[in-house]
Amino acid sequence: MQCKLSVIGTGKMGTAIIKGLLDQRILSAGDITGTDASDQARQAFLALDPHGALQWAATPAAAVRNTDVALLAVKPQNMTELLPQLRAASDRTLFISIAAGITLARLEAALGADRPIFRVMPNTPLMVGEGVTACAANGRVTAGHHEILQAIFGVTGRVFTVSEPQLDAVTALSGSGPAFFALIADRFAQAAVAEGLPAALALPMALQTMRGTAALLTVSGMTPEQLITQVSSKGGTTVAGLAVLRNGALADLLAATISAAANRSRELSKV
Question: How far apart are the C-alpha atoms of 60 and 58, rounded to whole Å?
């Protein structure tokens, strides 16, 4: 891919994306510019390229002045101060915001409605190349822009296109989801310890079971229900455990969990 990318905010998410692009040789280091108010973030960014080709800008305005793509990877509370500085970008610049709760309408109001803008929701597993990234676009985004977005985020996981209202459900499912799955894995491991398994084995086994199940469903194309049937034997251990899960209002609890997170996402978008 031939383009100049500026990353505004080189914290954990920003550097993870840059690392993926460099590792997969999607972009050369000389075509990437970073900027951040934190000196620690600056050092982490520059350390990604031992040859010293990565570029650094003193301010966001300087970073976007001659760029093709501007990736806004700052915290939502910093966007009010940041956005006016980005008007220095050219009309052709593609803006990609990963700031949760910052709507396309707000981005257009600050940057100009004639600019192509993506609102993107990635999740933290992108730091290990297993992320979920969902994107919603304004009316100025073209098929070519979608190809650029796919190139940038495809190296850190899977990319999905959704409508902007669907981003609240995405936030609940894949944005907050890693915390929910982590809690479930921890509780499974604790329960196994209570049954006599050493703690040093319980969590690694729980995590590998989650990972293996996800991989099996993905590769085989089976539905979750088909896998459940495959693992279950009449009168066996799986059936005994499933009876507890199905009679214990698990579906209602998980539905309430996703609903609470999605509703909070909607509230934050209105702030």
Answer: 7
CA–CA separation, 17 vs 99, rounded Å?
Answer: 14
The residue written with tokens 């914290």 in the block is 11
- pLDDT tens for each residue of 159-195: 999 999 999 999 999 999 999 999 999 999 999 999 9
Strands 117-122 and 131-137: antiparallel
Residues in the chain: 271
SS3 248: coil
CA distance 10 to 74: 8
Q: What does the alpha-carbon distance between residue 20 and residue 18 come to, in Å, rounded to a whole number? A: 5
Does 151 lie in the same domain as 23? yes
| CATH code for the domain of 179 | 1.10.3730.10
Q: With helix as H, strand as E and coil as C, how does 5-36 read?
A: EEEECCCHHHHHHHHHHHHCCCCCHHHEEEEC
Whether the full predicted model's pTM is greater than 0.70, yes or no, is yes
Alpha carbon separation from 244 to 137, 149, 186, 241 (Å, rounded): 43, 44, 18, 5
Q: Give 199-225 pLDDT, tens digit per residue.
A: 999 999 999 999 999 999 999 999 999
Say which DSSP state 45 is in: H
- Asked if residue 168 belongs to a domain, the reply is no
CA distances from 260 to 87, 240, 252, 255, 269 (A): 36, 30, 12, 9, 14
188 and 235, same structural domain? yes
Q: What gap in Å lies between CA 217 and CA 209, rounded to an integer?
A: 12
* Pair 112, 233 in one domain: no
Q: What is the CATH number of the domain that holds 138?
A: 3.40.50.720
